[in-house]
Amino acid sequence: MTYVVTDNCIACKYTDCVSVCPVDCFYEGENMLVIDPTECIDCGVCEPECPADAIRADTEDGMEKWVAFNGKYAALWPVIADAKEPLPEADALDGQPGKLDLLFSDKPAAEAV
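Structure tokens predicted for Ferredoxin:
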């Protein structure tokens, strides 16, 4: 079993989950996070930490596509090990339907200067 990040993280990018992850298996895109399903140790500490309720166990119905999605972008994006501020529009966009089609960016997080 593994945990995965779903579409409600898009345009929110809360990082409360990152600060509790014991294996640094979160990866950061421009406007969301993903979990590397091969690195996740199934401890579950991240799930209750997500204010957007965007983290799910892969055993829930319909999670197969999210396992593949998380795996794909974890291979492309940089690891994130420290918490950051959420995106400015996080509260307003939390729970908005259709974020994958409307708002998702496949770009990696911007490099810190």
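The chain has a mean pLDDT of 96.
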